[in-house]
């Protein structure tokens, strides 16, 4: 599964301040227990090419339109996370979605039923919620307002702001530095 490998690779690349954006994919997959579809949606979050995605028994077919909805819901989740939106905004995406307990393949599972174009987005919302519950205050969107990634902070201080210090952290620091210089020059 290329997305998983990609995510692991990304996780290695972004080891900083205990916040590892790449690992979000793995965490959410584990937390939600819906491995491949969630990874597919997170592949988007991590900007890993969705086309590479393939799995055995689940073999998800991704209806056209659902990629756009996933991008949209990711943006809403970020706005909710930043306190700019109420979680009520998610209601529209969750409409008509049902989780059914089933006994399949020798174990109990939850099967999600939702309109095809929103199914992936519903999974993203569920995975997000699961992480909010299981690791309260640890999942947050990157502090760079232009960044679309989430991070899980596993550091003791729990003050990580960036998906990656090397990318967003340094970029935001440079921006602040530039702003301060500009203001000093103007004043
Ligand atoms: Zn970032």
Describe what you observe in this structure:
- With 187 residues, this protein is mainly alpha-helical.
- The chain folds into 3 domains: 2-55; 60-134, no CATH class; 140-187, no CATH class.
- The chain has 7 helices and 4 strands; from the N terminus they run H-H-H-H-H-E-E-H-E-E-H.
- The chain has helices at 2-13, 21-32, 35-45, 66-81, 91-94, 119-134, 165-186; strands spanning 98-104, 107-113, 139-141, 150-152.
- Strands 1-2 form a two-stranded antiparallel ribbon. Strands 3-4 form a two-stranded antiparallel sheet.
- Helix 1 packs across helix 2 (21-32), helix 2 packs antiparallel against helix 3 and helix 3 crosses helix 6 (119-134).
- The longest helix has 22 residues, at 165-186.
- The structure holds zinc ion.
What is the CA-atom radius of gyration, in angstroms?
18 Å
Task: Count up the domains.
Answer: 3
* Uncertain stretches of 5 or more adjacent residues: 1-41, 43-60
Mean pLDDT: 72
Q: What small molecules does this complex bind?
A: zinc ion
In short:
With 187 residues, the chain is mostly helical.
Please describe the topology of this protein.
Layout: H1 2-13, H2 21-32, H3 35-45, H4 66-81, H5 91-94, E1 98-104, E2 107-113, H6 119-134, E3 139-141, E4 150-152, H7 165-186
Antiparallel strand pairs: 1-2, 3-4
Features:
187 residues, mainly alpha, 3 domains, 4 strands, 50% helix
